[in-house]
Write a structure and sequence with these properties.
CATH architecture of one domain: 2-Layer Sandwich
Bound molecules: dioxothiomolybdenum(VI) ion
Protein name: Xanthine dehydrogenase family protein molybdopterin-binding subunit
Organism: Streptomyces labedae
Radius of gyration: 27 Å
Keywords: Molybdenum, Oxidoreductase
CATH superfamily of one domain: Aldehyde oxidase/xanthine dehydrogenase, molybdopterin binding domain
Distance between the termini: 62 Å
Oligomer: single chain
Shape: globular
Largest sheet: 7 strands, mixed
Strand order of the largest sheet: 3-7-1-15-12-13-14
Strand content: 25-35%
Helix content: 10-25%
Number of strands: 32
Amino acid sequence: MTTLEDPTRTVIGEGVDRVDAPLKTTGAAHYPNDYIYPGMVHAALVGSTIAAGRIRSIDASDAQHAPGVLTVITHLTAPQLERGPMTLLGPSPPAPMQDDRILHYGQHIAIVVADSPEQARHAASLIKVEYEPGEALLDIEDPRAEILENPWGLDTEHGDVTAGFAQADIVVDERYTTPDNTNNPLGLFTTIASWHGDSVTVHDSTQWPHNVRTSFARIFRIPESGVRVLAPFVGGGFGAGLRVWSHTILTAMAAREVKRPVKLVLTRPQMFTSVGHRPNSVQHIKIGATSGGRLTAIEHRAISSVAMEDDDYEPVAAGSAVAYECPNARTHDRQARLNIPCPGSMRAPAEGQGNFALESAIDEVAYALGMDPLELRLSNYAEQNPVLGLPWSSKALRECYTVGAERFGWARRTPEIGSMRDGNWLIGYGMAGVSYPFYQVPCQARASLRRDGSAYVTSAATDIGTGTYTVMTQLAAECLGLDLNRVRFDLGDSDMPYSPQAGGSGLTGALANAVHMACGNLVKEFLDIVRDDDASPLRGAAAQEVTASGGRLHRTDAPDQGEAYTDILDRHGLEELSADGRSTPPDPQKIGMATAGAFGAKFVEVRIDPQLGLLRVARVVSAIDGGRILNEKTASSQITGGTVGGISQAMFEETATDAGTGRIANATFGDYLMPVNADIPDMEVIFCGGPDRATTVGTKGVGEVGLVGMAAAIGNAIHHATGRRLRSLPFTIDQLL
Ligand code: MOS
């Protein structure tokens, strides 16, 4: 029917510009804090200045009487709230301001509502709090911390790991650490809540409007139909918008009390303690190999931190079980409960940390064996999923390795440490492999064709800058045989068909399958209408005999036997026809294939001035198997952006927690280091492979894979240049001197 059924069609849209670009560049795209409601008032939050203990007293009287103040709510006056529901991402964070306990620094302990944001912030500064401090657990290796064993049930073991190490000629056994990182989307997270009786309209910086709707229904004990959540533009997320956070709930709570629309914009420092962060990790990796370069055993044990009374999904070690063909492997994840702000997913959660340890350790094995790191990876290539024992639904990692190496010029690498130089610069070449997990969950979409010949397609998804608007417009145009400008794709409204989160690199795939199905069902609707229609050249045609093209449907074997959608609607007196699509993820056991996520190979050149400790990333080549690519331009931008995120993780980002107080010591853009343009080199992106076999549209998701592998590849390149093996992120100057 459409070119999507053609498995050789790898890219369906090469360089389509973002359909929402004019809106964004002219300021017509409205982000949550661009909305203004009549009578709207403004909120400000007060955060705890201790990390553990109790509030002994809280005196809001000065704040109450400050100019413009409508209300101050603390745990003493807050209504009782339910905790949010279990979600696809695990349990919701605890309900805010329900008692006097302090579990982390920055915990919201009061919300002030005033006529203006300035008045609200001023009043918030007048609130006097006395604490009864407790002992704060802040160190991931604090022996007093509660340890959660195998919290997601993802620990794996296959083969006999002990026997595998006994067979090894060399064993690498090392410890790696990664710090807390903070997502820091550019848009300050904003909530606007406006109640009408027991119904509420919410504008929110969320990656998942339906999650806000379901959560609000539970938290405020109102019907889901009474909650409408709008997020047509988000302002970035990087995972920070996946959960329903305390500030969103408190804004709605305050708006209900003052019976006015309330807007809350988090400050940048509050963004460090209110909307999640990538939790730190301590990892031990042990890898055994024969002198011939065969892996005999892998053991990866990881611990990451989690907040008190919260859950966060961060299986750091799990990915190591499926990255290589190794007969004996064990992975093992633990969490340490600390008095820290709730962590959450941050771009490539878990993989970003786990891959750093695994791919650095693989490089260490290569050096121990005197083997080329690329050769070692190719020699232990997992042709099938080692845990499921099933063939992958697609895997072009070998091609990524070879094509990437060729483009990068890996063959020019001389293996001896410090053997490549350019004047004062030591040059290092490093690489890493990436196996990113498959993640798609159920998703729905609706497609309509209107009397004017245009299509309208919707789903309550979000576009966090990734290109959802654009690729879904393209896809619907492709499926319905319409010009791009005849299709409008809309998202970001919880009244639209159910969509999962923009997260886990899974939205494009899940939504593409739903849009494809909705469009297919819409074509069937048209064929149903003309089934007995003597005036239609399509009379009695079955969907599989028909092609959609040029705004019409025609018999595939006879292009002149067809008619325009509009002619069918006209003749039958219809304004429009609509159809739904619901995608469900394939079950590996049923399809007999391990559903594959994206794969990638990263090649990096670094330049180091050993006297100054200067580290520069000079070149990056990313070869990525992302399945079918819906739009080469936006997909490539995703990989480029992810690569920048990976350079940032490797060299810059570290959220610093004060060991005494739990205060985030660098919670501003001035103090929290991120790369600027001068830190970012030429980056090349190459797509390998073709459509994945497990789903109709065959995309695999490219939102996160681009970040993964960068830290290890840079670390491996540093080792090649200097002989130093850096096992602790970020790689800072002091580690290079
Ligand atoms: Mo992504 S961290 O799943 O938004």
